[in-house]
Amino acid sequence: MTHGSPSAATDELTPQAVRLRIYRMLVETRVCEKRISDLFLQNLVKGTSHLALGQEAVAAGVAAAMEKDDYSFLTFRGHHHVIARGASMKGVLGEMMGRECGLMAGKGGSMHLSDAKLNIMASYAILGSQLAIACGAGWSAQYRGTRQATVAFFGDGTANLGAFHESLNLAAVWKLPVLFICENNLYGEYTATHRVTAVEHPAADRAAGYGLERIVIDGNDADAVYQTARRALAKARAGDGPSLIECLTYRQSGHSRADPAAYRPKGELEEWLERDPLTTYRRRMLELGFDEAQLEQIEIETQQTVDRATEEAKASPPSPVSLAFQDVWADGGIAWRN
Amino acid sequence: MAELSYREAVAAGIAQEMERDPNVVFLGEDVGEAGGVFKATVGLLERFGPKRVRDTPISEEAILGTAMGAAMTGLRPVAEIMFSDFLAVCWDYVANQIAKTRYMTHGQFSFPLVIRTANGGGSRFGAQHSQSVENWAMAVPGIKVVAPSTPADVKGLLAAAIRDPDPVLFFEHKSLYATRGEVPAGEHVESLGTARILRRGEHITIAALAAMVPRSLAAAEILAREHGISATVIDVRSLVPLDTRTLLEETRATGRLFTVEENPRLCGWGAELASIVMEECFYDLDQPVIRITTPHIPLPSTDVLEDAVIPSVERIVQEVRKGVDFR
After folding, report:
1. b (16+ CB within 10 A) / e for B249-281
2. How far apart are alpha carbons A20 and A223 in whole angstroms?
3. Model ipTM?
4. Domains of chain B
5. From the candidates A70, A92, A135, which should be mutated to test the interface with B, based on the most B CB atoms within 10 A?
6. Which CATH class is domain A16-314?
7. Chain B contact for A134 (CB, 8 A cutoff)
8. Nearest by CB to A166, which of B61, B75, B142?
9. What is the per-residue pLDDT across B96-141, written as a single tens digit (0 to 9) for each?
10. Over the stretch A5-62, which tens digit does the pLDDT of each residue have?
11. Between the N and C ends of chain A, which has fewer C-beta atoms within 10 Å?
């Protein structure tokens, strides 16, 4: 597979029901991210937030290919994956707003979204750490003899970190059932990736170093992502080891809420908006004969879900102060002495 | 009872727990086929097979990350970091990930894992293979910190660490690997967070850890025999949780506390203990707390220099004599 592979629009590999699921995920992640952005402007979200607007197809395509008991390891830019894997909107929005109803009751915040019930094995805010931790989940599944696969996401910048290389090597040597999925959104924080990376494709061009196939796909094409993930998951479950997949995509907003992304060359954003994962997928579905009313129904329902979740989260009390003094240890406490 | 070396007790502790619980797995550099660079894990690969005893690449980040991911998905890994100095290259996993993810996720995940590592000086290995870094670990909320001084405690505390539902950083001392001692036969499990009183005296209380324990005991003998100073000696054993009850009681009993620490001076574990003593039993003290530590320097390599800086039996005797105040 190479960059610029033909559109997956007519590919038979994405069944209709899956396309509908993917579309719903795309809409949900988009609407929810926009809502988080709005809540920020209303000063209801504290701290920072790293939006994945424009990168929704990676989340939707992979989540649609995963089984319920597969593991996800995410990054500080992970809202889209958490939503695509089915976490409660109220839980996500509540966490953003520091409410008791948040996924972690306000103790983690935007960068650490997790939901153990859904095997969303946390979001990590130190770049690269999640890759090594994902190896452990993969090893555990291999050891316990389950068919569970593990999926770890990371950004283009992480491919220049030591943890990336240590994890890929170990996963390849131990044939771990792990998918390492790079969301190459062209920027590592404020710096264009090509300016600081020795190869054109920060993840895929390193694949040969670990005896892995070089895979670069259009990360804005949810079908391409879905089909690639399916193949890689099947390979993992068959005991044939890890995959490294580089998804080319684009971060439509700045790195974080503090970043207006003024460093982007003129016209770049507009060019990528032409390839927006949501609008292109909608167009494709219509071309494939889906009823527009059905798509509109999904859009309306999602809007209602996010509106309701927003109101519920706003109504939830702030995290009680007592929570600060809980859960350092497995006994629920924080004692370090007798 | 059986006599084992400190290094044999490591393998005995791991083996006891692997035998008991099929979810206990062991990984690290050279731990399997080579039996560990300190020969502390000889025989485990042969006994438990390559599925449970896994040699890793020289990749400390991958080792600790893998242990963490395995722990949060149902296994009880024991990971070896060959020298405690190497913790610096994978400190993210200790300080940011393993220690904090339970808290950050509001208790959604558990991390029942043990990181074993060879700590401390005396081997003439120089500044990057000899450090005592237990105080680094003590500064991170969310990880337990244990450092045994005898073969029996190696086995018993390692077993306790493996059974513990929380992550434990287990510091073995390089210069103690060859020491021998009685280890209870059959299943042996100690309890984390308990100090042990090794001898009782009436004048001073000495709190020591790991390799400083036998030195403090030897110093206490000399102090009693030659200088008429009778000392209580406590093996602290566990820095987190810290057995403050025992340490405070024994400090009150003599009114004089000396700490003997191998870690460099600043923010050594004894500083925390001194602060607790100040706050909680100041009026029971007959004199200031005195800390006997390695100076605040990187460790030099050659024997003459290394021996001059890590607290020795002679220096403990000397500093106690100089510092003790019987007014």
Report:
1. ebbbebbbbbbbbbbbeeebbbbbbbebbeeeb
2. 11
3. 0.96
4. 2-183 (3.40.50.970), 196-323 (3.40.50.920)
5. A135
6. alpha beta
7. yes
8. B61
9. 999 999 999 999 999 999 999 999 999 999 999 999 999 999 999 9
10. 444 444 557 899 999 999 999 999 999 999 999 999 999 998 888 999 999 999 999 9
11. C
